[in-house]
Write a structure and sequence with these properties.
elongated; Beta-lactamase Inhibitory Protein, Chain:B, domain 1; 6 strands; about 35% helix
Length: about 100
Amino acid sequence: MTAFREKYLFATAATVVLLFLTTGCVSTADVMKSWVGESESKLVSRWGAPDASVQTGDGKRVVTWKTLWNSSGNLYTCRRSFTIGAEGKVERWSYSGCPGYQLR
């Protein structure tokens, strides 16, 4: 391997590590929990339109976003749901099939 190629590979690896360290990871649960108390309009403006929305009998609504993700060649469906109270604020959250951590 040439000296130039070694330096290039080292610089590339160092950049990836630096990017990872400055970006950091956060748990999916922490991301979901951070939305409790926020308005539905703020949630939708950040996440886009939900993939599904269901009105409950008690005046609340459950909104759900679905995304696909790949791990070791296997495709998974991540479902992230929020319960919106009658006042239009996020009250609860749940997720299934999602990775435990994600980039910030």
